[in-house]
Design goal:
Layout lengths: L3 E5 L3 E6 L5 E6 L20 E2 L10 E4 L2 E4 L12 E5 L3 E7 L2 H4 L6 E10 L2 E10 L5 E3 L1 E3 L2 E3 L10 E5 L8 E4 L2 E5 L9 E3 L10 E3 L6 E6 L4 E7 L3 E5 L6 E8 L18 E3 L4 E11 L1
Antiparallel strand pairs: 1-2, 2-3, 4-12, 5-6, 7-8, 8-9, 9-10, 10-24, 11-23, 12-22, 13-22, 14-17, 14-19, 15-16, 18-21, 19-20, 20-24, 21-22
């Protein structure tokens, strides 16, 4: 059975489940929870890890050198039990190592480590992927944390996402969950996107490149969450239409192209990791307010 462990410092408290090494809560010491609570009426996820694919595969089938394997949206890791390998008062580390069950759907040997660490009002979440097999390890990886919208204490305030680089990145449209055409205009103006539920009527907003390495999700004159990203060039914003949360999703990898191949190595931004190598990905969120 999954177990939930707690880490904390003088400012924050975080709970993490061994199922998917998924964060369950992110609270400030005043008791406010900034993370979505997984209400089944909307979406049961809270902060899943996406591995070895991000997004959908055509027909939920993944091809590796022409061999077809079943692969649900966002991969296998979020549905697997991780092992807790280290815990201190303010940090914890979980890992998932390939086994016969994972190789039946993803025929590679890997170690996926997920670490949560608190420092002041900052939470850092880091994923490390290691190739413990012989052939190159192809994969995509991403984070899918959902935060309350409106943010605690900002119920009547306008919310926005603001890019640190002030850019107006291009956005792609999903077609049955697969990457479709690039839309003619960016929803950002000078790096700012005023949030409205209608933005998500046609699924997620996906920015393959140009969104930069940091952004802020916040309320005008109210609390805000400031993010920085490491080795995660793709950004998505998503909510189930009308739901009281916003997912801020940094990725290295995206869904397959609509009308394209099911081959894993052909998916956008797929990594090919050499035998014995490892690669690190992560995000940090700081709570202000």
């Amino acid at each position: 059975m999954p177990q939930t462990i707690r880490i904390e410092n003088a400012d924050l408290m975080v709970e993490v489940s061994t199922l998917g090494a998924e964060m369950q809560s992110l609270k400030t010491t005043d008791g406010r929870d900034w993370l979505w609570n997984g209400d089944t009426a909307w979406w049961t996820g809270r902060s899943p890890i996406l591995f070895p694919i991000v997004g959908k595969a055509p027909g939920d089938r993944l091809a590796v050198n022409g061999q077809i394997y079943p692969m649900a949206q966002h991969g296998i890791a979020r549905r697997r039990e991780f092992s807790l390998v280290e815990q201190t008062s303010n940090a914890c580390r979980h890992e998932l190592v390939s086994n016969a069950e994972t190789r039946a759907v993803y025929p590679f040997d890997f170690r996926l480590t997920l670490e949560h660490c608190l420092e002041g009002r900052k939470l850092s979440v880091t994923a490390t992927v290691e190739n413990i097999g012989e052939p190159p390890l192809p994969f995509g990886i991403g984070f899918h944390p959902a935060f309350r919208w409106p943010l605690p204490g900002a119920e009547n305030k306008r919310h926005a996402v603001m890019l640190d680089n002030g850019a107006e990145p291009g956005v792609v449209q999903l077609e049955d969950g697969l990457i479709g055409r690039t839309l003619p205009t960016s929803p950002f103006t000078a790096g700012r996107l005023d949030l409205a539920h209608s933005l998500f009527d046609n699924d997620a907003l996906i920015f393959p490149e140009g969104a930069g390495t940091g952004l802020t999700f916040g309320a005008d004159g109210g609390p805000r969450l400031s993010f920085t990203f490491e080795n995660l060039p793709n950004i998505a914003l998503w909510q189930k239409p009308g739901a009281p949360f916003l997912c801020i999703e940094p990725w290295h990898g995206m869904a397959a192209h609509a009308g394209g191949t099911a081959e894993l190595v052909e998916r956008p931004y797929t990594v090919a990791l050499a035998a014995g190598d490892e690669m690190r990905f992560g995000f940090t969120v700081e709570i202000n307010g």
